[in-house]
């Protein structure tokens, strides 16, 4: 098999080498239709073939040991050239840019060939991993499409049938779905798949050349991050790693899950943090867990998407990634979805023993990049209404399959966040401040949060209103407590799975949860939203809008894709009150509130999640607060359907949206008899026993 793949790769390499010279004569055609320029197709194939040659040359460089002898400057230049055509300043004239491709090749061919150019970029990772199969099949796809254009030119003097080209792309995605899913599942659960782990554990981390071994884009962010961590004393790096891994361990303990049943943990992080990750790997081994560290998907066959899930380097161009988020629209039909689901199950079945002992992810998030405000392009591929429904169905069924093999009631997670150098000139001060946030004394917050819970547990509903420009006006219904001495609605969350402290949260009753949620500016899943509004009726989204684009319809599409994830509606899966006023004051001091990840931002005011509850797939687990009371608010009217129709119970998304303290007019707990318990008024805690939380505000004003 390996010999055959090597031969296929060799044939593909030789043919790619010939294309730049022959394309001009083989494909020269007069413009045929609006938007097609003379010689455009010849230029597309010649220029893209040259880029592929560059990737193949890099593969030879890696295979020949070039990484060992090259200087840091040489490696940086080689890395830049690999990503050059999609970097800002070059992307405008790149074939990977749908707008440029459509302007030169027309809409049908432009969209398809732009997708092809983007897909071929996954060759970079394959070159560094020396993945012969992945390289061979992508060269063959490019050559097959090229030959279709050559034959059409020679036989008919024109262009191929666009549908035949689309079908070729379809069958590529379909035929290799099984192979790629099996490879991905193996990488997700098998700690012997150790490409990244070996770099982390075996490299001299003081020599920053190691960063270029991953086959990712390396920007100044990653280099500065690694340099900075190298300067920190070992005890501080150990504290960072200990906080992270201990959060993971405690996450199992507080939910009554047995971590001793598990053998692996998935470390997800951004490059530059290798020094901390090395200590984390050692910590996890001491508690019986091997680290699984896989690359964030690069290809449409792997599930490439805007949000990164795995390890990743710098983002060469966020607009490029946004432009290609829905490339599967080219071939996403019922047959393809069913085939992929079948392959998904088969792939899980082949690693079921490894999946059963997998503990879940431990995530290190980075924040501080300039908030990305995407440009909407009509040339981008988008899912149509039928495809959106198929995408929702696929996520639901794939999520259920994953839960079958990695049981929700047995797994856990942890997330911790750190700033990246791009956050500004005060990076080192901000990093030190975040370290303090991540290690705040949870016992202080635990006691104060219990007072909040005691008040909230008296309520039938909670009223939340904004102030100033914030138009929030919400009523959140709560579950009735049958035995208030032993039951509670809100979980007392300190710093285990979600670092830093602290919040109290619940799953609202949907019926009677009504009103408007509004934030003037928020950063969700890597995207910035302006004047985001969501209206709820009986706990479900009834309307939504934002002000990112001039066209209201474009704003709705943006939210439908990135907040609702193509669902017609979503329930309010969580209502929480964040208590980390120290974090809010810290963010205000440095002017970074709009750059904070939701992990920290959700602790800086009330937040509301649309999608699943926080107890998805673990509703039957008994969860108790430190005071011994059992949490009863684990279900809502959607999740309870799991007992009848699990396919309707889970949405496979959960997006938190926070109202900052300075936009918060009130949070009031309202008892069944109408009497009220003020919790927050004009951005300050007014509930007796919570005064300590206002101290951060007072210190800020001194």
TrEMBL record:
<protein>
    <submittedName>
        <fullName>Aminopeptidase</fullName>
        <ecNumber>3.4.11.-</ecNumber>
    </submittedName>
</protein>
<keyword id="KW-0031">Aminopeptidase</keyword>
<dbReference type="GO" id="GO:0006508">
    <property type="term" value="P:proteolysis"/>
</dbReference>
<keyword id="KW-0479">Metal-binding</keyword>
<dbReference type="Pfam" id="PF02073">
    <property type="entry name" value="Peptidase_M29"/>
</dbReference>
<dbReference type="GO" id="GO:0004177">
    <property type="term" value="F:aminopeptidase activity"/>
</dbReference>
<dbReference type="GO" id="GO:0046872">
    <property type="term" value="F:metal ion binding"/>
</dbReference>
<dbReference type="InterPro" id="IPR052170">
    <property type="entry name" value="M29_Exopeptidase"/>
</dbReference>
<keyword id="KW-0378">Hydrolase</keyword>
<keyword id="KW-0645">Protease</keyword>
<dbReference type="InterPro" id="IPR000787">
    <property type="entry name" value="Peptidase_M29"/>
</dbReference>
């Amino acid at each position: 098999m390996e010999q055959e793949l090597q031969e296929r790769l060799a044939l593909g390499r030789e043919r790619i080498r010939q294309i730049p010279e022959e394309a001009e004569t083989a494909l020269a055609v007069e413009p045929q239709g609006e938007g097609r320029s003379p010689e455009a197709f010849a230029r597309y194939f010649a220029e893209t073939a040259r880029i592929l040659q560059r990737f193949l040359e890099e593969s030879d460089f890696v295979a020949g040991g070039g990484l060992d002898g090259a200087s840091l400057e040489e490696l940086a230049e080689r890395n830049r050239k690999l990503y050059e055509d999609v970097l800002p300043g070059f992307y405008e004239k790149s074939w990977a840019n749908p707008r440029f491709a459509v302007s030169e090749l027309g809409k049908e061919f432009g969209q398809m060939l732009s997708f092809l150019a983007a897909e071929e970029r996954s060759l970079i990772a394959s070159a560094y991993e020396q993945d012969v199969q992945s390289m061979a099949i992508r060269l063959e796809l490019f050559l097959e499409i090229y030959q279709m254009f050559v034959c059409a030119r020679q036989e008919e003097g024109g262009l191929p049938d666009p549908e035949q080209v689309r079908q070729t792309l379809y069958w590529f995605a379909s035929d290799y779905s099984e192979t790629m899913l099996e490879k991905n599942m193996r990488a997700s659960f098998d700690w012997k798949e150790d490409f990244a782990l070996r770099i982390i554990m075996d490299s001299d981390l003081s020599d920053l050349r190691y960063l270029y071994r991953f086959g990712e884009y390396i920007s100044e962010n990653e280099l500065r991050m690694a340099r900075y961590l190298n300067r920190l004393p070992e005890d501080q790096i150990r504290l960072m790693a200990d906080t992270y891994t201990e959060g993971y361990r405690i996450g199992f303990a507080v939910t009554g899950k047995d971590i001793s049943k598990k053998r692996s943990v998935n470390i997800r992080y951004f490059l530059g943090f290798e020094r901390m990750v090395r200590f984390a790997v050692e910590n996890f081994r001491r508690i019986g867990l091997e680290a699984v560290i896989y690359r964030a998907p690069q290809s449409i066959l792997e599930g490439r998407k805007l949000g990164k899930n795995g390890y990743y380097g710098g983002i060469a161009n966020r607009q490029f990634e946004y432009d290609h988020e829905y490339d599967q629209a080219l071939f996403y039909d019922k047959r393809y979805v069913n085939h992929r689901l079948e392959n998904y199950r088969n792939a899980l079945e082949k690693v079921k023993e490894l999946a059963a002992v997998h503990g879940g992810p431990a995530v290190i998030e980075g924040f501080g990049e300039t908030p990305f405000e995407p440009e909407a392009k009509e040339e981008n591929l988008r899912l149509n209404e039928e495809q959106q429904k198929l995408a929702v169905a696929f996520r639901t069924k794939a999520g259920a399959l994953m839960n079958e093999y990695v049981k929700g009631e047995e797994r856990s997670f942890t997330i911790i966040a750190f700033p990246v150098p791009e956050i500004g000139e005060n990076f080192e001060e901000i990093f030190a401040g975040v370290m303090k946030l991540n290690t705040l004394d949870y016992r202080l917050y635990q006691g104060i949060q219990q007072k909040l819970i005691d008040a909230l547990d008296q309520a039938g509903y909670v009223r939340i209103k904004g102030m100033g420009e914030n138009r929030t006006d919400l009523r959140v219904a709560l579950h009735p407590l049958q035995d208030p001495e032993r039951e509670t609605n809100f979980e007392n969350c300190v710093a285990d799975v979600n670092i830093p402290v602290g919040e109290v949260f619940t799953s609202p009753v949907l019926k009677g949860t009504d009103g408007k949620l509004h934030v003037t500016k928020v950063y969700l899943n890597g995207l910035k939203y302006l004047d985001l509004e969501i209206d709820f009726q009986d706990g479900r989204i009834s309307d939504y809008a934002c002000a990112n684009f001039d066209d209201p319809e474009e704003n709705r599409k943006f939210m439908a894709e990135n907040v609702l994830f193509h669902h017609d509606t979503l329930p309010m899966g969580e209502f929480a009150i964040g208590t980390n006023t120290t974090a809010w004051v810290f963010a205000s001091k440095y002017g970074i509130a709009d750059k904070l990840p939701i992990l920290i931002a959700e602790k800086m005011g009330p937040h509301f999640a649309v999608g699943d509850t926080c107890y998805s797939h673990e509703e039957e687990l008994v969860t108790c607060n430190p005071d011994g009371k059992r949490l009863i608010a684990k279900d809502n009217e959607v999740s309870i359907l799991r007992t009848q129709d699990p396919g309707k119970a889970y949405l496979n998304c959960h997006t938190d949206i926070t109202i900052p303290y300075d936009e918060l007019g009130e949070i009031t707990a309202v008892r069944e008899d109408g009497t009220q318990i003020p919790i927050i008024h004009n951005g300050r805690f007014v509930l007796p026993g919570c005064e300590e939380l206002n101290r951060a505000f007072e210190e800020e004003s001194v």
